[in-house]
Write a structure and sequence with these properties.
heterodimer, A: mainly alpha, Non-ribosomal Peptide Synthetase Peptidyl Carrier Protein, Chain A, 4 helices, 54% helix, globular, B: alpha/beta, Aspartate Aminotransferase, domain 1, Aspartate Aminotransferase, domain 2, four-stranded mixed sheet, 14 helices, 16 strands, 17% strand
Chain lengths: 81, 402
């Protein structure tokens, strides 16, 4: 079972190269509002997360994920299933 | 009351800003007369058409037009009914026969548009619990087919074989999987590595659908598309296509060798719940498709045109969407929408029509001047076109003065 704190740390690390505005990250940081990512950045980032954890985050799931915390929860759930 | 149209205010503002710079609205062009597949009159001026999907120039073919006139006289102007009720005439069956002959496949199903063919086939094939795996740069009709269905949607990086393979391997082995690919991607005119991709799909138990809208009639020995050219057509489960490009009329279709294919006619909602195509459209489509089977010379000339335009534009200093000509589409990449609109207008003033393409239709927020060639463009017209690009490019500062 994956540790949520470890997942959060890893997710934050993966956000790094895409965090052009240098936004301080917390569980409530939003991808669209705070990080201002466009669809292409989202695509690249999602691919990085998928490869890191060896999971698939479907577009249906992506539509429900707005914050860094929600992403960590989704990753934890996908790794347990 | 909340104005439901207020969500479009940013787009309205962007358009107003663009028009305030003095450029004409690139999305409101009217063709007053159409003289041939390659020439029309716009704003009173004779204009070379380099932004249509009339790749094989069939719209003015004598046999095609005669077939349409005959069907209009004999069968009337429209069917006023669904294919599964009163909307199937002998002409619809004949058109499906023409498609079966063209692709050498067992089954063909004609839809009222290509958009509806993707919408219907994708949403019907992939149900709840199934997966659709698609290229991130897929056409709107593919995305809308996904949105209309209940499957899980997985996207992979454009034309990335390894990204596709990784995702297929992560999906549950027992789940139903439909991989949706395009032969030619219409924005940049680039071709998919179907040979590798189709092999990987088969190795991982996925069915494959290839949209060959922009390659039909042109690419492949018999014009069957990129999957024919790359030798994998027998492993493709479904091919989607359109009549509104090389065929030269309107309509869409799916062809397949799947033994249970015919059941789709009863369960595919965009096929059932709409009127079928008019008799004249079916007659023009069948005639055109059968002529396209024997158009090797036209295919060769279109390749010459495409290669010549690509080389000419590159030599002038334009940035293009592909390193070499891969299809009949040559995309010129512009730095931004304003420059793109200025260049578009300058070309129109020179007497040349191209497509201005902008996000969200384009990948990576690009603004493109999309040129699509026709087999009826003469070599001299391509020279003329290059001259117009040079003049317009220098006038608006899109290329350096030499």
């Amino acid at each position: 079972m994956a540790n949520r704190e470890e997942i959060m740390a890893k997710v934050s690390e993966l956000i790094g190269p895409f965090n052009n505005k240098g936004v301080d990250l917390s569980a409530s940081t939003t991808f669209q509002g705070d990080l201002e990512w466009d669809s292409l950045t989202v695509m690249d980032f999602v691919a990085a997360v998928e490869d890191e954890f060896d999971i698939i985050i479907t577009m249906n799931m992506q539509a429900e994920i707005e914050t860094v915390g929600q992403l960590a929860d989704a990753v934890a759930k996908l790794m347990d299933s | 009351m909340t104005d439901l149209l207020s969500k479009f205010d940013p787009l309205i503002q962007e358009r107003e800003n663009l028009l305030a710079t003095g450029v004409k609205d690139p999305f409101s062009l009217v063709m007053e007369e159409v003289l041939s597949p390659t020439v029309a009159v716009c704003n009173g001026k004779e204009t070379i058409l380099l932004g249509t999907y009339n790749y094989m120039g069939m719209t003015f073919d004598d046999d095609v037009r005669q077939a349409g006139l005959k069907a209009l006289a004999e069968f009337g102007s429209g069917t006023t009914g669904s294919r599964v009720l009163n909307g199937t005439y002998s002409l619809h069956r004949d058109c499906e026969d023409a498609l079966k002959e063209f692709y050498a496949m067992d089954h063909a199903m004609v839809f009222s548009t290509g958009y509806q063919a993707n919408l219907g086939i994708i949403s019907t094939l992939a149900g709840k619990g199934d997966y659709v795996i698609l290229d991130i740069d897929s056409h709107a009709s593919i995305y809308d087919g996904c949105a209309m269905g209940n499957a899980e949607i997985v996207a992979f990086r454009h034309n990335d074989v390894e990204a596709l393979e990784k995702r297929l391997k992560r999906l549950p082995p027992e789940a139903g999987k439909l991989v949706v690919l395009e032969g030619v991607y219409s924005m940049l005119g680039d071709v998919a590595p179907l040979k590798e991709m189709v092999r990987i799909c088969k190795e991982n138990g996925a069915m494959v659908l290839v949209d060959e809208a922009h390659s039909m009639g042109f690419i492949g020995e018999n014009g069957r598309g990129v999957c024919e050219e790359q030798g994998v057509i027998d492993d493709v489960d479904f091919i989607i296509g359109t009549f509104s490009k090389s065929v030269g009329t309107v309509g869409g279709f799916c062809v397949s060798n799947h033994p249970k294919f015919e059941i789709l006619r009863l369960v595919c909602r965009p096929y059932v719940f709409t009127a079928s195509l008019p008799p004249s459209v079916m007659a023009t489509a069948s005639t055109s498709i059968r002529k396209l089977m024997h158009s090797g010379n036209k295919r060769a000339h279109l390749w010459e045109n495409s290669k010549k335009l690509h080389k000419g534009l590159r030599d002038l200093g334009f940035t293009l969407g592909t390193p070499e000509a891969q299809s009949a589409i040559i995309a010129v990449i512009m730095p931004d929408l304003e420059k793109g609109a200025m260049m578009w207008q300058a070309l129109l003033a020179e007497g040349l029509y191209v497509n201005l393409a902008r996000p969200p239709a384009t990948p990576a927020n690009m603004t493109l001047l999309r040129c699509s060639l026709c087999a009826e463009h003469t070599s001299e017209q391509v020279d003329q076109i290059l001259g117009m690009f040079e003049a317009a490019g220098k006038a608006v500062g899109a290329i350096q003065l030499k």
